[in-house]
Amino acid sequence: MDRRLFLGAGMAGAATLTFSSVWSQNTPNFGAPTLPEPGFRKLKVGAMEVIALNDGALRRPLGEEFVRNAPLEQVKAMLASQNLPTEYVDIPFTPYLIVSGNTKFLIDTGFADNGPPTTGRLAANLAAAGHRVEDIDHVIISHYHGDHINGLRKKDGSLMFPKAKVHVPAPEHAFWFDDTKMNAAPPAAKGAFENARRVIGGLPAEQLVKFEPGAELAPGIVTSAAFGHTPGMSLVTVQSEGQSFMYVADVTNIPSLFARSPDWAVAFDMDAEMARQTRRRVFDSLVASKMTMGGFHFPFPTMGTLEAAGNGYQFKALA
To answer: Domain limits of the chain?
Structure first.
């Protein structure tokens, strides 16, 4: 995998997820995205509860660079066929809270107060759903792109979830903390390594917990490997009383594009071919099982099911 990681736009695209300033592609010409009210959605999964928590969204012009292996006009045609705008895309950011008894697990973090004005809604939506940041016992990180980890810390460097253990995929951590890989990265991509070290590197040893993909982090909370988007990205499945929910992280970016055309590569996929294979494997399994699922960049309420549609898949949101 390493041989291909720095080819094409993968690392450069990943670098754009590092700091909020790069998201200033957001342009007033197209207005601001509409954020959901309320910004949370609850789902019972057996004895557990899964809560989608919107951290905001960004609107960015749709350019040639967003889909790396399809002509822009083809991408626009796919959006138009779904009655969606063709000049821009809205990218939501949605962490998930798992409530298991008295224990609270947050999956991914959003931006905290480090992002653009239309982000940073997690704490308010968490409170609206009846919980506080101080009550989070565990944070599970799917991968180290900035929109998934930056919310671990506030602008001043203090911890957003002060008592939480932070669970990270061991292969993901190993990649971003490998000096050889950082030194071999293009200059524009080094910021992504530096950001991971800034956010994760200062965590106390007793607070950082590395897991191997496939591990069960707690009863009914199971991880699985989904490499390609990043070298160690991992998914989380919640299982209780015969019911299941899968958080698919960034297996697909905007589903109206990358679920409908799963062989397309978003700019942020670091190994596009491995990401494509993972996307089809995971989505085929979800179609067959009819399991409820949700993703970080899915349209709110972000939770629903997948159905086969042509050469790809159609996301059906919960009513």
So the answer is: 2-317
